Amino acid sequence: MNKHRFAVLIPARNESAVIKQLLDSLHSQEYPQKDIDIFVIADNCTDDTAKIAEQNGAIVYLRKNNKQIGKGYALDYLLNKIWKNYPNRRYDAYIIFDADNLVDKNFITEINKVYSDGYDIVSPYRNSKNYGSSWLSATSSIYFLYHSKLFRHRFNNGINCATLGTGFLISHNVIERYNGWKFFTLGEDAELSMRAVKDGFKIGYADEAIIYDEQPVTFIDFWRQRLRWVRGHLQVAKIYGNSPATTTFDPLAIATILEFLSLLSILAISIFSITTAANLWPYILLAITMLYIPTFIIGIRTIMTEKSKIHAKTITKYTYVIFFPLMILLFIFAAIMALFSCDRKEWHSISHKGKYLNELDKA
User: Fold this and answer.
1) CB 39 within 8 A of CB 8
2) In the 3-class helix/strand/coil scheme, how is the chain assigned residue by residue?
3) Among candidates 112, 59, 62, which has minimal Cα distance to 86?
4) Does 257 fall in a domain?
5) Which residues of the chain have pLDDT under 50?
6) In a domain, 145, yes or no
7) Which of 35, 281, 308, 338 has the greatest CB tally within 10 Å of its CB?
8) Domain tally for the chain?
9) Which domain holds residue 154?
């Protein structure tokens, strides 16, 4: 296995509460530190993010632009700065993180293994560092654990995977092909996946490259995040349409459709019952049951297969899965709202709290 040289890219906007913890976890990698350069782009920050990142070993650039707002613009700006200021540093690939992430000490070693097998983009195992903080953070965690499980299946069967926002590796060849980062929708990760697969690049998956992401705890943060995601995916769909990256069977997608149809059935039966005074409550209860069961089964199966990797008490793991169908239902409502505002590109910050790797098992 070859030892490759990597540039770590971290776009950060007002992330002074968490940036140090991510940098500490990167400095603790088993992979040779001489082959890792860490770059932070402090994007429209009004706090001490840049200062803290620089004090903790990162190469920091500042960006102020109130018109071109978003992760895609920040990454493109950062890449151009690196190429201009470090022309003699040839990076084999780039690894992109969000500032609230933490990474396992073997993360870069494991993602390098899959990259060395000839993959152009590699997605990690996306875990959670705050599963037990609330039912929203827990169910959001289950959502990503499920996708890691799905990617494992796709990868083992030779099917392209996709990127899920953070912690992924992208080869220099891909970045060079697109002359930087040219994905500026709200769903820049989905846009990258669509374009890369369309252009013949291979997207792999590293099951042992574990990243810990912070999930939203409050409803307002959850709602804003999901609304942004759905708008982003709609924007990507308008540009690229369907793609081989998304055409394989996805049980959660099917369950979500069934949940939506069950919701419509509940509304229709309820209206008919009220207007005709008919006793249709047994049918309403049946529709509610059908709304709940498919996504609950997927949630509980995900917990059962991934439970050893979840940092929470056993009772917490299984208690919160009860709310997984409700989270998917909220996702459906966000999708409906996004249909009427898919061209909007505003960005809202999500509040984050600092946590170290050794604190995860104490959750």
Assistant:
1) yes
2) CCCCCEEEEEEECCCCCCHHHHHHHHHCCCCCHHHEEEEEEEECCCCCHHHHHHHCCCEEEEECCCCCCCHHHHHHHHHHHHHHHCCCCCCCEEEECCCCCEECCCHHHHHHHHHHCCCCEEEEEEEECCHHHCHHHHHHHHHHHHHHHHHHHHHHCCCCCCCCCCCEEEEHHHHHHCCCCCCCCCCHHHHHHHHHHHCCCCEEEEEEEEEEECCCCCHHHHHHHHHHHHHHHHHHHHHHCCCHHHCCCCHHHHHHHHHHHHHHHHHHHHHHHHHHCCCCHHHHHHHHHHHHHHHHHHHHHHHHHHHHHCCCCHHHHHHHHHHHHHHHHHHHHHHHHHHCCCCCCCCCCCCCCCCCHHHHHHC
3) 59
4) no
5) 244-247
6) yes
7) 338
8) 1
9) 6-215
- Give the pLDDT score at 185: 84
Res 143: pLDDT: 93
- CATH code of the domain covering residue 127: 3.90.550.10
Measure the N-to-C terminal CA separation of the chain; round to a whole number of Å.
36
In a domain, 298, yes or no: no
245 by DSSP, 3-state: which? helix
Nearest to 258 by CA among 314, 223, 296: 296
Scored b (16 or more CB within 10 A) or e, 294-316 reads bbbebbeebbeebeeebbbeeee
**Crossing angle of helices 281-306/324-339, nearest 10°?**
110
CB 12 within 8 A of CB 19: yes
Choose among 2, 25, 204: nearest CA to 109. 2
The C-alpha atoms of residue 117 and residue 137 are separated, in whole angstroms, by 34
**SS3 track for 123-181:** EEEEEECCHHHCHHHHHHHHHHHHHHHHHHHHHHCCCCCCCCCCCEEEEHHHHHHCCCC
Rounded to two decimals, what is the model's pTM? Answer: 0.88
Task: Supply the pLDDT for residue 244.
Answer: 47
